[in-house]
Structure formats: C-alpha cells, structure tokens
User: Fold this.
Amino acid sequence: MTDIVKQEVRVRFAPSPTGYLHVGGLRTALFNYLFARKEGGKFILRIEDTDQKRYIQGALDNLMASLKNMGLDYDEGPDVGGPYGPYIQSERIEIYRKYTEKLLESKTAYYCFCSEERLENLRETQRKLKKPPMYDGKCRDLTESEVKEKLAAGIPFVIRLRFPKEGRTIFDDVIRRKVAVDNSVVDDQVLLKSDGFPTYHLANVIDDHLMGISHVIRGEEWLSSVPKHIFLYRALDWKIPVFVHLPLLLNPDRSKLSKRQGDVAVETYIEKGYLPEALINFIALLGWHSADDRELYTLPELEQTFSLDRINKAGAVFDIDKLNWMNGWYIRNFDTGTIADRARPFFETHGIDVSDSAKFEKVIAVTRDYTSNLEEMPPRGRVFYETPQFSEEDNVLINEENSKAIYSYWIHELKKQSEWSKEDLTKLIEDSMKVLSLKGKKFFFPLRLALFGNTHGPDIPTIIDILGRDESIKRLENCLKSI
Ligand code: GLU
Assistant:
C-alpha cells in the first residue's frame, strides 16, 4: 500500500484591489482557474488589501464583477464564502499577529526599532554607493533586555525576518526549473509594519498555508520573493507549495507591459467593445500554447486543454493586432442575435434608437465585417437610422444626368409594391439596368450613394431590405429634389 495521497489541487488568485483588473492579473487568474478546472481542484479568490494606503473604495466589487464577467467563477472568495475564510486579508489581522509571535519565539524574526529617518538615510547612502537598498541589521542582534526596554519606552517598531546571510536558497519552479539565490542578496524583510498590519510576504505565506494552497501560480515578478517565503514556510514547519511563475507580459518593443504603450485595464477593453470570450482566448495564449498551436478556443475548451507544462519561459508580447483580429473573428462568428445584444449599448451610447430588433440584427449582419471591436460598429451602422449627409463631391455625382434617371425610375418602380423581397430587388436591378442602358459604376454608384451615403458598401437589395421600402423611396426623393 502506498501512503502517497494525491493532494487536492487548490489554487488562488490573490490581487490587491488597486481599482481595476490589470490584463496581467487576468492572465494570472485565468491560468489558476484553468489549472483548477483541468485538475478538478478549487479556485480561490483572496483579496490582499493589507497595504491600507492603496485601498480604493469600490475596487473590490469592481474586481469581483470583472472576474465573473470573464466567466472565471471562483469556488471560494469574499462574496461566495468557503471553509477557509475570511478571504479578505484586512479581516485576518489577528491571525498574522499570532504567527508573528511564533516567529519571534523561534528567533526567525526580530523587533526593529529603527526610525523612518534612519532608514531613509541608510537608503540614501546605499543609493550613492550604487548598492541595493537593504536593511543593515542594526537591530538584528539586540538583546532581550534591550528589546524589553525599548518596548516599555513605547518606541515604534516593526518585525523583520531574520534571513540567513550565508548560503543559498535553492528551489524548484515548474517553469524555471531549479532556481538558486544567494542569501546575501535577500533583505531582512519587514513582516509586520508599525501599524500592526502584515506586509504582503507574511500574510501571503500564512494564508497560502492556512487555505491549503497546493500550487502558487503567479507572475514572474514574484520569483525573487520566493526565498523569503521558503524561509517562512520552514520557520513555521509548513509544507512548501509548488511554485509556478508565469512569464512577464511585454509591450511590442519587449519592455515590460505598461500603461504608456497601451491599455492595461481589462475594463477598458470591455468598454471599447472587446468581447470577454475573445479577451479570454487571447490572454490564454500569452505564455501558453497547445500542442498543435491552435489559436481559437472557448473557455470550456481551454479548461480541457490547459496544462502547466506548455507554459513558456520567455516573456509574452501583448500584441494588440492579434487581439483585434481575434475579437473581429468572434464578432463575425457569434450568432447575430448575440452580437446584437452585445452591441446594443454601444449604439445607444451613440444616440441611435435600435429598438426595432429585427432591423437591428440586419444592421449587425452587415456592419460586423471588417470590425475589430463593438465600438467601431455604431458609426458604420448609423446610416441605416439617419438620412445620409452628402459632401460637395457626392453632390456632383447626385447631379449627374444618369442619376436623375435612376432615381426617378426606382421611385416609380418601388412604389408599385408595398413589400420587396431581395429576389424582387435583384430582378429590379437587372430590369432597370436594361431600361436605362446603364451598368457597373455608372448605375450602382449614384444609387448606393443616395440610399447609403457612400458609393461603396453592401449590395443594393441588402440596403433596401434594411431601410424598408418607404425610407428607401424617401432617400431617393431627397436626392432627386436636390438636383
Ligand atoms: N497580492 C499580490 C499581487 O498583488 C499577490 C502575489 C501572489 O500571487 O503571491 O499580485
């Protein structure tokens, strides 16, 4: 009999509520979610809000709404609860204090009474010497009586990690394989701040342990924190989770993804009319690829296919052109009703009344080609709701002899029937070209311009089918009158 029990997969997305969901955060959340679903494990949302200065009201609601909007439902979290709550760190302060006591007892942590001023001077000196900013260990070896004295005198303090100065920390990362860090470059990290709040490192390790996290999947920027975390796990005699550090997200010039070179808030992409399904698909391929390099995936398909061993080490470029292509693909390939529902608010924002659903779906069907996001659609669809405006150049064409003949003929013919099918209209085109002895541009340009406000665009039967007979006649009459 084997005593190896396969540990349940429990992963977490642990954002600090900064006000919006960063695309990098979405990638971390997605990879955690996919891994949990693939392995039949649990996906947990934990809010790391112990840095009180950065707290923004409403940020939490916004974050939870964004995750749900993306389809990333979590099994445990602030609003859904779970057996390991609370899931908001500011509600767990007592827990962190308790473990800080243990660390102090085992001397793996120590009191530091250095003033802000001293630390600032220290940093300044190190800056000048081009040395990395690190605590110099002044309080590391205070005696117990010195500590007692200072505590009794009410001197403000922080608690620091007593990180070994010698040797190396060696650990495994699923993506980076073996990683070795010289202990001499690791700082005596502050664990508990003077306001009694924990820092990220302390709270993160304690919660990952108490919440039974099996795999820590997060951005590569946290790789350098791992030695501190490992030291804490060992100090508390806890099992170390599996580490998975995801490759950095890069701008096209391969610098770290930044606001300066494009949008980074998921909400901004949604506002611009990127579909959650397309964003998820695009983000999934930032650092991961399937065995056959397939590009298009639904979320359930990703849940089946995802695996940690196909995550790359190299940074992943956030290529907006690719996102535009992918979003356009989804806009063209989802059923028309779905795209109409998604696009409706965008048209309404442009003041276009799209309450006639049957007409609106027809408009969507012709405006979704060559579109990369929903925001581009209202300016293109507007012409089906408002009489076109003509330029000087348009008026020259409208005023041509042939145009007048075309308009008169079409007004006369359209009036003969109350309903026009596309087939009837195709027949009318053929007949009128014969009667008027016109073809090609000479025929189509003036007609399309009058009806659609542009010489290029959808075919005439499609335009008239959307506008309806009466509106089409009205537009032709307007042009005829202006001649
Ligand atoms: N709170 C950290 C962040 O904002 C979490 C990092 C981690 O996953 O350990 O990204």
Observations:
- The chain has a mean pLDDT of 95.
- The pocket of glutamic acid is lined by residues 14-16, 48, 200, 204, 218, 222 (CB under 6 Å).
